[in-house]
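Student: Hello, beginner here. Can you help me understand the protein record under this note? Any guidance would be welcome.
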Amino acid sequence: MILVTGVTGVVGRQVAHLLARTGPVRVLARRPERVTVTGPNVEVCAGEYADRPGLDRALNGVRAAFLVTNSATEPDDERFAAAAREAGVRHLVKLSMLAVGEPGADDFITRRQRENERAVRESGLDWTFLRARTFMSNTLSWAPAIRSDGVVRALYGTSPVACVDPRDIAEVAVRALTRPGHEGRAYALSGPEAITARQQTARLSEVLGRSLRFEELGLEAAREQLLRKYPRPVADAFLESTERQRAGAKAQIVPTVREVTGRPARPFRIWAADHAEAFGRSQG
């Protein structure tokens, strides 16, 4: 049995889908009604990281687990790793971020992820870290403005990032969960190109068959936007991250997806075409 967490997110959901094609998979969800992964091979277990009895039920009989944590304050990695160790789990595959391995990254979120990796590494379990660059799916936040008035508003439109398709991350995760030889590895994951927000806007325009306009978002407007959604330390961390991207720190392309899966990483134009409906392209 393999346990997957984070199944309402883009990577965890895809990991569960892929695993369910070939064998049993158990998913842990705080809100089971939001789980969209279904089928005869899927078992949904209600629980959350702070709920030790729920964790124990979910981890019973589990051989390997895919771990996704998002809290900036709760010790969820420590909680999960301790419960997994006592349950006899042998291998944790953790979704992390590429900045963890970059000395120039010192924002609040990156420091927390370094602490989370350390907790897993020191748990005594075999581990694999998937250090992913920015998800291509983050551009879904542009969808409402694209649908309503054909505009993309973003900070630093000419700064490149080697963003990665979440499906590629999921495929690497499944390899690590189901095949030997990935223990003790920290995989850096990027897409096959460094692309700017202006270029992403142009790709989306081609896919949708309509003209889109890019508008540079000012720093203060970006800060206000973030503060409406996140606490200040998290908002500040995102802004520090965009400054690193502006300086070129996120443009490096790594071949890990090809090395692990045997096929090249998907470019943004493929991701955009496959998700065009979210931006307003009709099925017809």
Remarks:
- The radius of gyration is 19 Å.
- Residues 203 and 269 are 6 Å apart (CA to CA).
